[in-house]
Prior knowledge:
Largest sheet: 4 strands, mixed
Amino acid sequence: MSWQKGRKQSEEHKEKIRLGNLGKPKPKPEGFKNSGTFGNLCVEKHREIAKKARSKSKGFFGKKHTEESNQKNRDKHLGISHRGWKRLGDANKKQSETRIKKFKDGTLKVWNKGKSPTEKALKNWLKSCGTKPNKKEIILDNFLKSILPIEYQINVKADVMTLGGKIPDFVNINGKKKLIELYGDFWHRNDNPQDRIDYFKNFGWDTLVIWEKELKDRESLKEKILNFNEREV
C-alpha cells in the first residue's frame, strides 16, 4: 500500500522504524567524505583543505623564533588557565596551593629560562587560576586590621605589588617599606624564612615571617607584630 500525502504515522509505526534503524549507519551522499572538523564535504573540497593544511605546517620549517617572540610566548604561557582540569577531593586543593606557592616563590622560572616572571605575567596567571586568600591568610588579615588599621593590605593576588618576581603576602600601605609573610606549617616546612627576609632586603624592604601555628597565640602574635612595626605593646 502506498503512503498517501497528508496521512500521519502512528506512534507504534514510528517506534518500529526507529528500532529498525538502530545501529545502521546514516546514508552518506555519493562523492562526499566525512570530516571530524567540517562534517560531510565533497571529496574535492576535503582534498583542498588537507592540501592547505599540509602547506601551512611546513611554512615554519627550518626557521627560528626571535628572542622577542620567544619571550612573548613565555609570558603568554605563564598565564595558562587549567580550569578544565578536574580532580577529586583534596587533590584539587593541594595541586592549586602547590602551584600558587611555587609561582609566588619564583620556582617556576624554568618556564621563563631562569628569569623571574614579569609583573604582568604574574597577574595574568593569578587571574587565570582564580587565586583567592586561604583561611589562614584571611585570619591574619582580619587580625592585622584589628591591631593596625589602615597599615597592611593583603596581596596574594598581587593587587598591591610584586617584588623581584615574587608576591609578598601583606604589604604596608602607609609609607613604610615593610612586608609580612605567612608561612604554612606544611607547605613551608622545608623553607628557611631568613632566605625570604634576605631576598626582600635586597630591594630595601623589611620582612616579618609569621608561621601558621603562631596564629593560635593572639597575645604573643600581637606583641611580635607591634614590635616589628615599632609600636608600643
